[in-house]
Amino acid sequence: MIERFGPDREMFVVREKLTEPSCKRPDKKQPCQSVLPDGLLVQAITAKSDDEIIDKRLTAEAKKWREENK
What is the Cα–Cα distance from 69 to 37, expressed in whole angstroms? Predict the structure, then answer.
């Protein structure tokens, strides 16, 4: 990654460049971005309520993680 993008390139720029070729978004003015599965779990863990969890399938895992890491 460093050789391809350089040591000072921001990770969000790298992510965008890596996902551009396979972008299927109809509005090309909006950038394509990869989905980071662990990012959805982090979002579920840090959500203030179950209603705020984006991927409801992660609710149980998030609750378990919160209980184990109090």
Answer: 20
Neighbours of 18 (CB within 10 A): 15
Helix, strand or coil for residue 60?
helix
pTM over 0.85: no
The CB density around residue 17, as the number of other CB atoms within 10 Å, is 13
Q: Which residue has the tokens 């390139």?
A: 9
Q: What is the pLDDT of residues 38-52, one digit of tens each?
A: 777 888 899 999 999
The Cα–Cα gap between 50 and 63 comes to 9
| CB distance 16 to 35 below 8 Å | no
